[in-house]
From TrEMBL, chains A, B:
This is Phosphomethylpyrimidine synthase. It comes from Dyadobacter linearis. Substrate binds at residues 234, 263, 292, 328, 348-350, 389-392, 428, 455. Residues 16-96 form the ThiC-associated domain. Its cofactor is [4Fe-4S] cluster. NCBIfam families: PRK09284.1, PRK13352.1, thiC.
Length: 627, 627
């Protein structure tokens, strides 16, 4: 593997996944190649057939890990990732390269020589829409244009399942009576995803493609309920300030395990420089909550925030390449007292900041009064709105209350305004909600927000398990994902208690991949079940290595297995650790199947006929065939 | 703490939970005292009120840990737990003490001097129903008798919430607009649980009380969908044969974290002796799968199993005190070929054993043909049926298929036969089921099995995460628990991969307590939300210690917090690690509330009026009140 061994890249995880290789699928409309991961499988040994074997087709997996898992690529975090999209962007001829950074703060930081060793070495001048132009994917989609990003997404979402679907249905037919070619959920396309379908969903506002023109390194992905359910991982600089390379590794690590987007919630010093490093090295869209940085700029005094300061922060971040902004524009002055009677009041940090500002000035939220000004900035860089739920419930007792749903209605009004400007928009949701109140959240969101994609935090389904809130929330996340939520913001085991470490981030991401995939299965997304079937078949056939390699976390699966049965021998053994060598339910099942097949007893009718005559013959063989 | 420090008891975990004490609530109908755990809380410091404080009532928690967490009790595993129920049993005057163990195998083991040092020292002669008598709780319930067990359960299920409910509704009123006194789910009683309600549910077959007359050490509990959702933990002797004390500790450990019943799935040598030790020291009901031991007796050759051998095994275990038996009597000869086309065939071990036997002999399952003989044994000791789902699906692709539902219908027929004999019965369920197919399982079970309690394994909602199947299954378990499943069999992270260690058992139990409690909340069980509210209030008020002590796992919650903010100081600090000292959303919320209260702005209307005049005054104060 040609991996440059600089101190920087040495902290970056670049190990490829076992038995996996990167494949690049070419486009038809555009000159693009879509990265995917292909897992190769061992042959199936057919027992009682003199060791005859039949091959198992490799499994293609949707891959968020980016170039880091391609050993053939040299990566230097100081130079950043290859700019996959820059040609696509320039080819549209609607952007101009600025002579200098527009934001005052950005200029300030750039001219501060004390920051030189912190600064990313290769800062390129920012792009911006030419005067009068709108560079958002929504704008193109409405004009009927299928962009390279849209075709990339169509190919990526299909995971080459079109090559497997015959096989899949074949298997399903053979193996699952009523699921063979079962009809897909109301929320999902009946066939494979086409570039035109992607365009239609974006044009309708039902899906969002977060792709800032200043983040050309990102691999296009889509957030919409008629596509694979996505997950977001939050990262942030630790109290103990870690090196910038370590900050980059946090993002690389989260993407490796399946994060579709990263939110950088860093606070404190040097977040401008840290963000630059993260964006330049991130293969996934980056989201931020700009009010956090704005608050830093006024030393944490919310009442000192101003529109001008906030506006400069938006431009600063937009020109660095942030793909979506969480904006808490729905926290209206008149809603704030609705939270006073709550058990846990306002738990959203952004919501609290705006509430504090509103009460301090007795004015309406400036994010609301300046919303159209914000839209003008968003469409000049194609930054998407993630309209924040500043009044989301912080506990079971506060779920689905007046404050929460009042804000949701306002987010719906704001969505219409954003769409008027062709600015892509997603809606953030709760939080803490017991299972029986989850569906109402989805229904009200669809109703009030005109089907704009829903992006929820969990929700946590109980408050009694701090230390396990990745699990309390995965239950709610899987359900609301099934109901139609497009992206799930992960929760780590440290939620409510402390700052997540590397293990917590991995636990949170894997747990949310489980919730998202469970939702894809329930929605009947084309091909979602293919990976489950391939892994289950491997399990049934004791292809242990294939079972590990097809799993979300091959390292842990292998490690757990080896704790009980170490050694290579065990991995080809025809029994599992639960039953031991004398007896294994899976082996017996295989015997039952062989017997039924050999004796034409695959149907009950055949059984009744065939049974008697076979009985004696079988008894004579002393049923040795079973051992 | 007066804890005997013998080598045996030294391996047993006896540490009480932090800030918790055992309380014993007396009965009214019977001379009983019901064990519960009471967690004491700190006062609430009211800010901006010159340190005024208001007390928080202690929280009572349903306690499965048994006498082991009562430091005032001396426990010697060699002598076993106090026999809580023996007087209740004898007082009914329908049992006789046998002169000797009835089973041939039991006698054999007893007379084998080589086993002397393995044998439990204080084996008492078994009890059995007098000729013609039926000692099952179902039999008493049908006769209108409210047993001591039934009253114990009524008191236990209420968790003294009747003392808190005013407070609870008060809180709910104050804190959650539409949930104040919200109506309970269709599945749950509208008021507190009474002994008569318990009797009615048992008499109707909708609930089961697993209490073998030979397990007087157990604290009565109930399995039924109109009660708290229960969880089961499986334990078994490890390949590396651990000491018998270590086997006992496995059960104690699982009960400590919340297991409501334990299934002993031990295989190999000395399981008879191991089981005796576990039962004598178990405060919860013990379940087994007798066919496993029967298979051991024929050296793993399923085709050598006979009814006589199985019958002797049932009596052997019934006289030791096993409270429920999993019996795979629904695996009928004609259903076996229905599994041949499955992706993963038959994955139930018991199902495979019976399938192998049926095919080897071409006879109908002897558990089915001898079902009434089995009932005669069950009612003589009050052992409950757990009718096994030997044909449950082993993967997503096989969910809800013909083999599974055919067996379920047969389990329904068998339930009617069991009830004819007044034998208590629960029904086992899947397994692996995607979210959109879970509800159908519950509906078919209710329909075919006349509302007998459902007891499911998970179900796992995806197959792609070996190493995390406690989570893939907790999603399905929470949902099916909400839909009406009465008990959830836990899954550990080692599922499909290896044998669970102590950490895996704890992870599995805590994860399933989360699923069960989330279901109780969704069903609206009286008082289920009380613990959530108390913990959330503690969280909001930065009572860190109370938050830890009210959680399912106080040790882990405290440990995670201390990783980021060690030291006592941090635990009384008025900020959490996520926001830092300068800014905390929860602090601001409290400021908003104080402000709204002080200025009579609790209602939107009041806000509009009050806002203007307050504005200037507030601005003058430079909003120092907020800092």
């Amino acid at each position: 593997m040609k991996i440059e061994k600089t101190p920087e890249s040495s902290v970056i995880t670049r190990t490829p996944f076992p038995a996996s290789r990167k494949i690049y699928v070419p486009g038809k409309l555009h000159n693009i190649s879509v990265a995917m991961r292909e897992v190769s499988l061992h042959d199936t040994k057919i027992h009682g057939r003199n060791g005859a074997a039949e091959p198992n087709a490799p499994v293609t997996i949707y891959d968020t890990s980016g170039p880091f898992t391609d050993p053939d690529l040299e990566i230097d975090v100081k130079k950043g990732l290859p700019q996959l999209r820059s040609e696509w962007i320039r080819a549209r001829q609607d952007v101009e390269q600025l002579d200098m950074i527009s934001s005052q703060y950005g200029q300030q930081r750039l001219s501060d020589s004390k920051l030189d060793e912190l600064r990313f070495a290769h800062i390129s001048k920012p792009l911006r829409a030419k005067p009068g132009q709108n560079v958002s994917q929504l704008h193109y989609a409405k004009k009927g244009i299928i962009t390279a990003e849209m075709e990339y997404i169509a190919i990526r979402e299909n995971q080459r399942i079109e090559q497997h679907i015959g096989e899949l249905n074949g298997k399903a037919n053979a193996l699952s009576h009523q699921h063979a070619g079962h009809s897909f959920g109301a929320n999902t396309p009946k066939t494979f995803i086409t570039p035109e379908f992607v365009r239609q969903e974006v044009a309708a506002g039902r899906a969002v493609i977060p792709v800032n023109i200043n983040h050309p390194e990102s691999e296009p992905m889509i957030i919409g309920r008629n596509f694979l359910v996505k997950i977001n991982a939050n990262i942030g600089n630790s109290a103990v300030s870690s090196s910038i390379e370590e900050e980059v590794e946090k993002a690389v690590w989260a993407c490796r395990w399946g994060a579709d987007t990263i939110m950088d919630l860093s606070t404190g010093k040097n977040i401008h420089e840290t963000r630059e490093w993260i964006i330049r090295n991130s293969p996934v869209p980056i989201g931020t909550v700009p009010i956090y940085q704005a608050l830093e700029k006024v030393n944490g005094k919310a009442e000192d925030l101003t529109w001008e300061l906030f506006r400069d922060t938006l431009i600063e971040q937009a020109e660095q390449g942030v793909d979506y902004f969480t904006i808490h524009a729905g926290v209206l002055l008149r809603y704030i007292p609705l939270t006073a009677k709550r058990l846990t009041g306002i738990v959203s940090r952004g919501g609290s900041i705006m509430a504090k500002w509103c009460l301090a000035h007795h004015k309406e939220n400036f994010l609301y009064t300046h919303f159209e000004d914000i839209c003008e900035i968003m469409k000049a860089y194609d930054v998407a709105f993630s309209l924040g739920d500043g009044l989301r419930p912080g506990c079971i007792a506060d779920a689905n209350d007046a404050a929460q749903f009042s804000e949701l209605e306002t987010l719906g009004e704001l969505t219409k305004i954003a769409w008027k400007h062709d600015v892509q928009t997603i809606i953030e949701g709760p939080g803490h909600v017991p299972m029986h109140l989850i569906k109402e959240n989805m229904e009200k969101q669809l109703e009030h927000c005109q089907e704009a994609p829903f992006y929820t935090l969990g929700p946590l389904t109980t408050d009694i398990a701090p230390g396990y809130d990745h699990i309390t929330s995965a239950i709610g996340a899987a359900m609301i994902g099934w109901f139609g939520t497009a992206m799930l913001c992960y929760v780590t085991p440290k939620e409510h208690l402390g700052l997540p470490n590397k293990k917590d981030v991995k636990d949170g991401v894997i747990t949310y991949k489980i919730a998202a995939h469970a939702a894809d299965l329930a929605k009947g997304h084309p091909g979602a079940q293919y990976r489950d079937n391939a892994l289950s078949k491997a399990r049934f056939e004791f292809r242990w290595e294939d079972q590990f390699n097809l799993s979300l976390d091959p390292d842990t699966a292998r490690e757990f297995h080896d704790e009980t049965l170490p050694g290579e021998g065990a991995k080809i053994a025809h029994f599992c650790s639960m039953c031991g060598p004398n007896f294994c339910s899976m082996k017996i099942t295989q015997d039952v199947r062989d017997y039924a097949e050999e004796n034409g007893l695959m149907e009950e009718s055949a059984l009744v006929e065939g049974m008697q005559e076979k009985a004696r013959e079988f008894a004579d063989r002393g049923s040795e065939i079973y051992l």
